[in-house]
Automatic annotation (TrEMBL):
Domain Formyl transferase N-terminal: 5-185
Binding site for (6R)-10-formyltetrahydrofolate: 68, 110
InterPro entries: Formyl_transf_N (IPR002376), Formyl_transf_N_sf (IPR036477), GART (IPR004607)
UniProt keyword annotations, A-Z: Purine biosynthesis, Transferase
The protein's name in its UniProt record: Phosphoribosylglycinamide formyltransferase
Binding-site list for N(1)-(5-phospho-beta-D-ribosyl)glycinamide: 15-17
Protein family (similarity comment): Belongs to the GART family.
The species this protein was found in: Aliisedimentitalea scapharcae
Catalytic reactions of this protein: N(1)-(5-phospho-beta-D-ribosyl)glycinamide + (6R)-10-formyltetrahydrofolate = N(2)-formyl-N(1)-(5-phospho-beta-D-ribosyl)glycinamide + (6S)-5,6,7,8-tetrahydrofolate + H(+)
Enzyme Commission code(s) on record: 2.1.2.2
Domain of life from the UniProt record: Bacteria
Amino acid sequence: MNSPKRVAILISGGGSNMVSLVESMTGDHPARPCLVLSNDANAGGLKKAAAAGVPTAVVDHRPFKGDRAAFEAELVKPILDAGADIVCLAGFMRVLTGGFVSQFQGRMLNIHPSLLPKYKGLNTHARALEAGDAEHGCTVHEVTPALDDGPILGQARIPVLADDTPDTLAARVLGYEHRLYPAVLRRFAMGDKTPVLLG
């Protein structure tokens, strides 16, 4: 049996998707978490990762004052030190440059709260409601230099209800994110890029 793939997870906040990934990587799972990395020392997810026994690191973006190349030069160091085979973005709220992404091309995943290619960027739930969409959801995709682009590896679809607000829609989508991302990672770690479809 091949040794499990080593997974670094990047977060900026509470890390609920990170927790779902870490909790899934047990038993016969083909991957194991090797690092949780944040750009914010106060990110709540860091304590959750430490409590789960996963090594953590912080590279604060603020001292770099908009110099993304310098920030990313520091950001990549703990990932390389951890020997990560796969990088998962899980609520990491910094746009990464092509220079950073290219180092992990084909090995970096992201989860986005919309049915891509719809609603790249922010405020996806409000935008889906404003458009009158009948369904909404989330997408896991490979990361490429273009924002919220790249091959789609999984999607979960839910109906939009008549009384939905951005908050209620976000809460329902998040529940599916917690199921979809681990399912995609398991398949991806085995070398299978067949899309996972939920809902």
